[in-house]
Input
Amino acid sequence: MESDGPTLWGAARSRAASRRLYRGVHVPLDAEVDPAWQMRSALNRAGPGAVIGGLSAAILHGIAWFDDEFEVEVCRPATGQGRNRGGIKVVRADLDPGDVTTVEGIPVLSVVRTAYDLGRRPPEWRALGHLDDLLKVTGLNTSDLWAYIRAHPATRGVCQIRGLIPHIDTSSESPPESWLRLLIVRGELPKPETQISLYDQSGHEFARFDLGYRKYRIGVEYDGEEFHSTEQQRLRDKARDAKTASLGWVTVRVRAEQLRNDPQEVVSEMRKHLWDRGYRE
Output
């Protein structure tokens, strides 16, 4: 693979030995197309002046959580062409000189501009997941993000990101944990702590809750379909829950389908457990 990016395979190339990446862009069948490779291809297709933006920019900046089938997004000047092109999402925006940097030689929106853009996009639960992930891997602090927002106050979605900044928590280990935390707070329940560790007498960590309340000894676990669906994992969860229960903790497990299909039931269950443990609104 060439280090300087993808090749635009034209009609003269053997299509039998290639596959289409975007309209007008083909790659060899055996090519390992990583995100950076896809983005170089997208920029070749998008033309001069385009830079990588949105979730694609966050991927280049190192976020851990994204769909392998993500749509590449490029950003062009507000006066430029804004039509999507052959599977590439094109967004027009006014950019400051400092809004563009490079990663692996690829022109990309800066970390703070990427956070600003993703934090303004609905729905807010998805935006918070992106913000937690991006600030965690880049070290961007919320004071710098606030400063950028104050300098760019009159844009669509700015109220959303202002409301989300107090809820950013870089100790969150996955977007669903971020979504669950926001759901609890939006349900007018106390803000939970994140990553609560329990230790045995020898100082060994034997349990760590995704979220919870030390005061009420309530631990909250997000059970993703990929990590808690095997019989072996369920047995481990049961043994751990028994050990934490012996110390007075109750474990609330929130399944992926609950969070997706019945979020209000999740809030109601949390409220009941808090009430049973002495919390009063």
Q: What stands out?
A: Residues 231-246 form the longest helix (16 residues). The first strand starts at residue 18 and ends at 22.
